[in-house]
Amino acid sequence: MRNCIVLILALSITKICVAQKTVTNQALTWFTFNQNLKINDRFSVQTDIQERFFIAPLKQSQFLIRSTFKTAIKQNWDFGVGFCFFLTNTDPTVNFHLQVPEVRPYIEFNNKQVLKRIVVSHRYRLESRFFKNSNNNELQHGFSFGSMRFRYQLGVDILLNKPKDEKHAIKLRASNEIMLNFGNKIKYNLFDQNRLSVALQYAPIKSVAFEIGYVNWFQQRASGSAYFNRNILRIGIISNIHLNKKKNQSIQQNN
C-alpha cells in the first residue's frame, strides 16, 4: 500500500513538471447514478450510469454504463469482474458530431479499512480497451484493441455526524486515482491520467444518498506533449439495495 501511495504522489507531481507543455483546459458537468445491489453477504452487483457534458459549448462529452459483479474473498477484500460501454467525444469545438464507442472488460480487487468514522479504500483495476473502428470522421464496422490500462484509486470516506440507523448521514469523500497505459500502441503516454476528487454526500434515508463534488481530471494525450486539464462538477445519486435483508424482513413479518 505504501508503494501505491508513493506512486500516486509521484504521478501527481507530473502536473507541476509539464508547465511548458500544451495544456487544454475544459469545464464539464457529470451527472451520475450508482446502484449498489447486495445479493447476500458474499455477492453484490454495482452499476454506474453517467452522462458527461462540456459546459462551453454545451455538448455531450461521454455516456457510459458500467456494471461489476463482486464476490467477497477474505476479510475486507473483494474481487470483481465487470464490463463498461462508453460513447466518447473529447473535442467540443469540432463541427462534426462523432462519438466513438468503446468497450472495456475488466477485473478488480477492492480493500476497505474501517477506522471508527473513517473508511480507507483501495481499488486495483486492470481493463482492456477496445475502440470502434473509424475513418474520415465516420464509424466503420468492428472494434480494434487499443491498450491495457491499470488503475489504482485511494479513497477516504469521513462520517461527519452521528446518524441514527444511517439516516441523515453526512459524509466527506475524497479520492485520488492514477491510470497507466501499456501495450504495443502506447509510445509516449505510459502515464494516462490522474483524477483527484472531493465530494459531500447526504443520505436522507438509509437506501438513498445524494452527492455533489469536484473532480480534477489531468490527462496526458497520445502525443506525450499535450495534456487535458478538466475541471468537473459532479452531481450524483446513490442507491443501496440489500436483497437478503428484505427477504429476512419479509419472513419475520409472515411469521
Description of the molecule:
With 255 residues, the chain is mostly beta strands. It has one domain (2-15, 23-254): Porin, CATH 2.40.160. Helices cover 11% and strands 67% of the residues. The chain is built from three helices and eleven strands. It has helices at 2-12, 14-17, 243-254, and strands spanning 22-38, 43-54, 59-74, 77-88, 100-115, 118-135, 138-159, 169-182, 191-205, 208-220, 226-242. Strands 1-2-3-4-5-6-7-8-9-10-11 form an eleven-stranded mixed barrel. A hairpin with a 2-residue loop joins β9 (191-205) and β10. The chain is globular, with a radius of gyration of 20 Å. The mean pLDDT is 87.
> Looking at the structure, what is the overall shape?
globular
- Poorly predicted runs of 5 or more residues: none
Q: In total, how many domains does the architecture comprise?
A: 1
Main β-sheet description: 11 strands, mixed, barrel
What's this model, at a glance?
The protein has one domain (2-15, 23-254): monomeric porin ompg (Porin).
Protein traits:
about 260 residues, mainly beta, Porin, eleven-stranded mixed β-barrel, 11 strands, about 65% strand, globular
